Amino acid sequence: MNKTLLLPTLMASALIAPMTHASPVLLAIGTLTQSAAGPDADLSGLTAPMENGVRGDLLGGIGSGLAYAGGNTFIATPDRGPNATVYNPLVDNTSSYIDRFQTIGMGLATNPNYVAGSNQPYLLNPTLNATTLMWSATALNYGDGSLGTGSGYTLGSGVPSQNSPGVNYFTGRSDNFVGTGSTNAANARFDPEAVRVSRDGRSLFVSDEYGPYVYQFDRATGERIRTFAVPGNLAVTTLGPTTAAEDDPNNSSGRVANKGMEGLAITPDGKTLVGIVQAAALQDKNKYLRIVTFDIASGQATHEYAYQLTTGSGVSDLVAVNDHEFLVDERDGKGLGDGSAAVIKQVFKIDITGATDVMNEPVLSNLTMVGKTAVAKSALPVVDLVTLLNAAGIASTDIPAKIEGLAFGPDLVFDATDYHTLFIANDNDFLPTEAGPNQFYVVGIPFSDLPGYQEQLVPAAPTLWLIGAGLLGLGRGVRGGLRRRGGKGQA
Asked: Residues of the signal sequence (predicted)?
């Protein structure tokens, strides 16, 4: 690997010393292609077709966001739904896909047929255990379909037929908003990206690209229970139903359309959310992305920091190592689903300690960052997924283009080495034929590579306690086994 190519081009970003210990290992690969409802179907029961003719229960896009929920349970958030079928470009072909989160059991079992260099030491068989729709008890703003008038396209109302008094569902359709100006949490359009579980295990925090927003949902019911105040410098002035309508020249500041609040982490003590946009805001330059911290108790944004891309075209997720260090998924858009070969799917470690608060900085650029410090960032990636998968015999053309979700899972011991497990998921855009199935890669990161690691203790919600419990308590086998995290770094 050419180390020079991985160094930041600007000196505003400090460097964290490169890793010098045991290397990360690929422990398992799993796919999720069906549920009890059948092939390519989730458990929503929404079998009727949407405006674009696609079934409302299509199982896809799961890797947009991924969170650990204790035991063998993970939460995954598909994004705004299938929009690859051309039926109305005036809404970017988005549909009334009801936003949802999926509860998945993902226990690791040792592979009795493991042969070093030919397969993985663990087996991963993801199981979909629940699908929960996301809704608001208060009224939401939906499109009326009038955007198609005189255009040769027709479009009906964006109000879901499943709505009932006091239950108003969020959907991915891009015209589900009213007015212009600052963000409006009463708008029904919602493009979920990242998800994290609250400290008590009873609620979820979900980031959104449309607003951008950060919402909190009741984990058992799917009801939105709170909205976090995102800094105004990430909001656009002119809202629109298409990417072109919301980007330059219609807006000169705020998040880039479809590249808003992408990643979300929660600190191990459960007190702080940390969000990151996928790409530099319209007013910012030179690959500087904004990281925003939120105080969970008050719901207020507290700080903004500058993050500088290394080689990727954007960031998809971040997960907390402790209260000041995080792993960041930086990627390009190449690979399976793009018709090309994957190049950049890298996870860097960053540290916000000592970074300059840029919340009141109108523009981030070479000039404005003089005398300021961006977040410190490892010179080399902690995980280079393309390298790991290539070594496992997987061609770069078969590596998903959209590697997006990150979540730490249970620690384990393999081959006499302690590892933190990092679950990595893809967003297949609901196109399993073109972009591959819903895929999960489990990477072991040596304890020595993350010396400041602190576990986020998440109790399973009572009603979900037994989900996936069948794979708990796995014994050792082959050359390793799962183990309970103990004592070290617990909050």
From this structure: 1-22
